[in-house]
Amino acid sequence: MTAKAIMVLGTTSDAGKSFVAAALCRIFAQDGYKVAPFKSQNMALNSYITAEGLEMGRAQVMQAEAAGVEPSVLMNPILLKPTGDMGSQVIVLGEVQGDLTAREYYAVKERLRPTIQEAYDKLAAENDVIVLEGAGSPAEINLKQNDFVNMGMAAMAKAPVIIVGDIDRGGVFASLYGTIKLLEPEEQAMVKGTVINRFRGDVTLLDSGLDMLRDLTGVPVVGVIPYMHVDLDDEDSLSYRLDAISPTAGMVDVAVVGLPHISNFTDFNPLGRFPGIAVRYVYKPEQLGNPDFLVVPGSKNTMGDLAWVRESGLDQAICAYAASGKPVLGVCGGFQILGLDIADPDGTEGGGEAKGLGLLPVHTVFRGAKTRTRVTATTGTFGSVLAPLSGTTLDGYEIHMGVSTIEEGADAVPFATLTYEDGRPQATDGCVAGNVMGTYCHGLMEEGSFPAALARMLCEARGLSCDNFPTMSFRAYKNQQYDLLAETVRASLDMNAIYKILKEGL
To answer: Do the beta carbons of residue 143 and residue 102 sit within 8 Å?
Structure first.
């Protein structure tokens, strides 16, 4: 039996469709259905490695977690990871296919339609309900030809559509009306409801506007969702977490360098759940100040971001901070940037060589193959300010180009010993030299004893109490947040109307 389907589209990027889709996944699962999310094509630098060692976008991972199922690349068959302003790495069913410019990709994308249909059909055969998510806006009239992400995907899946608009930005009635009216007549007939998201205040003040919108479009408003404070993963550069803000007085100040091609910034979200710790992003030397902990994050274009760090003057600020003796962490591309040098003989990122910041005695060489695997790790024995992190454990995943080796005879130790889920022999990862550490492990702030040990180390250095640290795991914490999301959205939507839309289909 083929699953019932419903598709969530938005008037714009960041209208809230990812969270609404996640909420519906949770609600349907709570109501006893086997649910899977689906997004045919995702453009994102926040990615994830599945149990099979395949790569997919984190938005569908978040939705799979909400549904209580294991993430699968079938849920996100195409992932585009921008490598610059004009091109992206193209990943199909978890495997890298190469780098293409936007024009090159649009010239060949139609060949991927059968792959998308096959992935969707497999999910539909295994589940009761599929919650599909679109990308950007379905009313981008210059991109509608050969669309298989928005209304084109809805047609492929025979999925009725609800469209989400963000009232917090203003102009929500115009954006919902304009989105619907820019669709072809047959596409407009597929739209079965609209949702207003992020409303603040007395919802009855919207009543007349909701009635007029329904009369103008012929589409009912099936819910008004209030502005929510839920702590779940966000989508790339649209995340409020990436805003440049001032340090929070009296709290542990964690500064993350806001690289232009930052990837997997979700690595650091879990630190913010510890009381007394604030995470912020910096883009200029004058924004750095004197934080308690400095992080250089992952990058999809390490060579380009290293050049930007130098051009912006952040290289000198980072080195001066490291010389102060406070802890520094580089993750993946950030680890490479902190090393001695980077060589790209195969032209993976355009070729050439570059000197790193020299804070870790590490040489990196890019090679064509991408490392993709999930790991468990035990950290090494450290001195200096990092001693409290010795012998801690963490779960994570590697997703990177390049191999980094510690210079022979250097006064440094590996960051951790890794055990791989795919069965390969144990190996060491990363490098620690004094107060500076680097690792290829993404997700290192989520599970195991390392996150709490790091938070405790930072708080104690500031003289802050650690007595009220959360005791639940990050996995349990996220489940709590999914329940909160579902509770709020269930109370805000006309769920009878949603189930009617789902049942009737197209």
So the answer is: no
